[in-house]
Amino acid sequence: MLGEKNNASAFAEQTVYINRLIEKLPEVYEGTPKACVITFGCQQNVSDSEHLKGMLACMGYEITEDEKDADFIIFNTCAVRGHAEDRVYGNIGKVKQLKKDNPRLIAAVCGCMAQQQIVADKIKKSYPYIDMVFGTQVFHRLPEFIYKRITGSGRIFELSLENEKIVEDVPVKRDGTFKGWLPIMYGCNNFCTYCIVPYVRGRERSREPEKILAEAREMVNAGYKEITLLGQNVNSYGKGCEHGITFAKLLRMINDIEGDFRIKFMTSHPKDCTIELLDTIKECEKISHHLHLPFQSGSSRILKRMNRYYDREAYLRLIKEAKERIPDVSLTSDIIVGFPGETYEDFKETLSLVQEVEFSSLFTFIFSPRNGTPAETMPDPITREEKGKWFDELLRLQEKIAEKNIQKYVGKTYRVLCDEIVSDGVLSGHTNGTATIIFEGDEKLLGEFVNVKVVSATNSLNGVIV
Ligand code: SF4
User: Fold this and answer.
1) Could you tell me if 289 and 174 are in contact, meaning their C-beta atoms sit under 8 angstroms apart?
2) Between the CA of residue 226 and those of 39, 221, 446, what are the distances in Å?
3) Which residues pair with 72 in a beta bridge?
4) 3-state secondary structure at position 375
5) What is the pLDDT of residues 67-117, one digit of tens each?
6) 3-state secondary structure 165-206
7) How far apart are CA 88 and CA 38, in angstroms?
8) Which numbered atom of ligand 1 lies nearest the CA of 269?
9) What is the pTM of this model?
10) φ/ψ of residue 308, rounded to 5
11) Ligand 1 pocket test: which of 230, 269, 333 has the largest number of ligand atoms within 8 Å of its C-beta?
């Protein structure tokens, strides 16, 4: 979300297009047009899609989940792994038939995958029925793109990535009513050698603290009970900004907002996880004690090749600090198995780190080469099949750890946010960490905090409201 000019006017320009579309669309579609937003990838993409829906609703579109029913369809894409991209091509191929059924359908592709010139060129050449392709930093210009397309301009390809101030005041239509995403920054400066994010999301830019606080207050006043702060690298929030507000400081400011709600955040980079942040989590009653700290590999040699800015010892020191300062901290992480050049000896260091830390849960991936990243061209002698065996070994280890640790919950009482109906009269909810507890309760409790005592732990935690 960009604009050389100050950010307020940048969206004001779009409201001009929104007002024109409010008049124009009913003419073109004889009634209320429908829009379908299809999202791939991470929470940041989900949040971006909530802004796409917000703008579409302002233009007069009714949001539909059914692509066959849509007059406008947009694919918000992900580029983090190869199979994510394959899925997208499979989906946009369906537009050809959808357009045969509805010739006035307008189709768009945006997000991280679309940000890559090679992808935009492929869509330009091989998917002539896609009307527009635009990147991660211009999606606030959706009204302009739609207006230009329906008033006769040709296909639109807009991939500018100029890393200027974030455009504020873009309408948002959140999917949830009591749990919500709140983006605080965009982009990443770390350039891990396997990662495409810095190339498709650009440099780190932090939103103005007062804008974030205003939005957080609005969410609390609207009844949100859990607010998750989002960024590719949340704990480098505010770096290089005149206001000097660090991530830890921002957390304290949000914690000071009146109301009964919980604050979560993702994703953190270990190199920016400070003692100040750990103490802030400990001292602020609203901040969740869940810390997602991706370590990726247990081998310092591989961490160097990944350009992760920390080694095994530094990571383990940080974990030790976190456990000492926040005794009930719930740790989760990401691991890449089979990074180019990784040997079984390196991999054993990943296993031993997992054994030593005992994470609540892990997100594990087999290395997927990304277009244009340094790791894409690194020598990679280990077969996919062999990497698959390592991957399974890691999963088995984590399952054993989880089986052992689940027993620790039995007999204790936790304050959980009821966030799912499991079946008739049965709900589930999240603790202040990452644990999910299943218990009997009236669905009227959905979105409320209740105290639940864990009575047994089998494949799941089972509890009773107390
Ligand atoms: S920290 Fe590394 S892995 Fe995370 S988004 Fe940035 S470059 Fe990618």
Assistant:
1) no
2) 22, 12, 12
3) 35, 106
4) helix
5) 999 999 999 999 987 788 888 999 999 999 999 999 999 999 999 999 999
6) CCCCCCCCCCCCCCEEEEECEECCCCCCCCCCHHHHHCCCEE
7) 10
8) 1
9) 0.94
10) -95, 0
11) 269
